[in-house]
Design brief:
The complex is a heterodimer. By secondary structure, chain A is mostly helical. Chain A is built from twelve helices and no strands. Chain B has one domain: 3-Layer(aba) Sandwich (Rossmann fold). Classes of the chains: A mainly alpha, B alpha/beta.
Amino acid sequence: MSRKLKEQIIEKVLAFCALVTILTTIGIVLILLVEAVGFFQEVSIVDFLTGTEWTPLFADKSYGILPLISGTLLTTFIAIAVALPIGLTIAVYLNEYAPRKLQKVVKPLLEVLAVVPTVVYGFFALMIVTPFLKIFIPDLSGFNALSPGIVMGIMIIPFVSSLSEDALDAVPDSLRQASYGMGSTKFQTAFRVLVPAASSGIVVSVILAISRAIGETMIVAIAAGQNPQFTFDPTVPIETITAYIVQVSSGDVPQGTIAYKTIFAAGITLFVLTFILNNISYWIKSRYQEKYE
Amino acid sequence: MESDSQSSNPKTTQVETKPKLNSKHQSYKLQAQNVDVFYEDFQAINNISLGIVENSITAFIGPSGCGKSTFLRLFNRMNDYIDGFSMNGNILMDGKDIYDESVNVEELRKIVGMVFQKPNPFPKSIYENVAYGLRIQGIKDEEYIENRVIESLKQSTLYSEVEDNLDKMALSLSGGQQQRLCIARALAVKPTVLLMDEPTSALDPISSGKIEDLIHELKEDYTIVIVTHNMQQAGRVSDNTAFLYMGNLVEYGDTQKIFTNPEKDRTQNYITGRFG
């Protein structure tokens, strides 16, 4: 075989591999769209987006997605409320206070948090965190938004801390010098100069963490319940979009029915949410990169 | 301010490193006494002693790597954060050792302002840049802050160019304007000493000229130490000049004398451009 032909074949194979991933993505979006369109022929999109009852599996069917969205946003909000302060503090500590050697050890260790199987986290939330929280909140239900929210927050700490640390590290050293030269303490330098200067990078890290939390399935499926309620009370059972999809997929809902199609309606809602968030973070990132050139 | 005893300190009486004290000032504002600086094993400064007179402009000149920036940064302890930094000897300000344990480094840096080689404004508005030093001191009186901001910008000759857009981002200014903004930022907290580390090396000649004029004016109120590798600049702006070479102080004294009739051949060679 000639050398040139060989090269051409290799190139085609590589291009094919790249194409497979793109085609898969397009395929998923298409299937989501087609099935969702089928769903929206039977249910009005206005009812879907504004209804506060989600009971497609009951005799008295309602298709308002808001309870699932509220459940998703509630757990995500709790997760971010945990991950942002802790993650940012860790980032500032590693970047400005910790010796380089310690930083080199701690950063990869923290990232281990993100690779613990989520089913372990889910179990941890249900069996350990919820009973623990009950000591302080006796009215807490066995399934609730609070416990999986907190555990999810712990899981996404490395998203915030690692990317924020990178952003802090990218702040030009001249700004640090300027700040110290003015008589700032480390704390003032970190929070008045470095964090604001790295704010776009930090925002990106938080958005990615949010989008990870929104898409997280196992923890909430195990510990948050299967009870779609339009509520922002973190102590009662709720259901997230992802948990609903798990519930229906693992149940025995016949294919082609409207109940089956709800999976895709919920799926596309989830997709749109994370897609928008990822695009916002991409947009912020590209603007941010221009700033220090 | 105090201590006639300092000028009679035996360590400072080395003839060649003693600048002329003018009659009004009987003591040095800043003083280095037998200073060695090491980065790990590398000796960057070798036994330098010199005194700097209040309300004067002192230039540190010398080829790249001679230690002049390191030496300058001793006076506001900016070397402290560099890994492997260590020093011997004393640095005195108004007769007090600034490396003494009792000295609060942050407080010291509020009195000893610094302007860096590359303009380094914060990514904040012009106003907030100048206000920064006041805010970190916990000053809340917005009227006082505004007055200080305007006064400092006027002092650094930038005010007329930016008075209508103090809320504009500092990074949108030109390099020369940014550097004058950094000078205003340093002046806002009313330091008594201003350290300038090659403040014009990143600027065009016109901006450099403006900054040189500014340095001249600031002499009235501040003791200024400037590091420069631009010989003409040292000659134009400074009262005293120190020539450093490979961590040693080769010659120090009246700028005019150093530039017209230096005592050492090496100084002569450097100034006339035969090396460096």
